[in-house]
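Project channel, design review

CF: Before we commit to the Cyanobacterium stanieri constructs, I'd like one complete example in the thread so the newer folks can see what an input/output pair looks like. Taking NYN domain-containing protein.
RD: sounds good, go ahead.
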Amino acid sequence: MTNFNFNNGKYSISNDYTQFNDLDKEKESDNEPDLKLETNDNPTLNPRPQLIPRPEYNPEPHINSTTIIAPNSEINNTNHYNYVNNINSNRLRDRISIFVDGNNMFYAQQKNGWFFDPRKVIDYFSEESGFMLINAFWYTGLKDSQDQRGFRDALISLGYTVRTKILKEYYDDSSGRFSQKANLDIEIVVDMFNTVDQYDRVVLFSGDGDFERAIELLRSKNTHITVVSTEGMIARELRNATDRYLDLNEIRPCIEKRDF
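CF: and here is what came back for NYN domain-containing protein:
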């Protein structure tokens, strides 16, 4: 049962979640960790890694054939440079889209021993980093249509587009065990390319090497790719294909979910 509390401007959502089997059982998540939205009263504990700027969005002042110069004015006229500086001070920000492979990230967070707050993820990669958030997608497998209902509603209220798929049961001949899995890689790639004209940067929360080719194609379209995962959970192929790999533990002070 999910509880919604509104206390002094703090919106919290609590849910009960079952434990996952070990990774070697390859069982996908039936549930997600608690989500708690909180005000940002505490300062950042450690310096936040800086994302790489796109040079094409930081042009140097220059004069070209379309520049209008008033009659009898000099090229270094004070008014002209004030005009150019005003344009530069209001230059376009990079547009960013976030894609979170929820099941893959659950294992990564479980390995690290802490969980991130989806609201803080949006804040960190948009307002705090100076980028314009265009889309945020969250993908997860479900035991049934009502599974994780409260958690999904909370994600939607934060602005995420939530994609789901019912878990399927598979028999592993080598281990002699049944496992449940919902692979949403196709859904993630389809959303990436359906919205490719809307963003300049992608932040992909996943360590799955199956995304290698999709990432290479996006980079060929001059899209900057950041992959977020953790050591031991990031495929070599994916790490090699991306513009930048960011370990969850590097940004833990900025995105960690806290219980107070």
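RD: helpful, thanks. Residues 10 and 39 are 7 Å apart (CA to CA).
CF: The longest strand covers residues 132-142.
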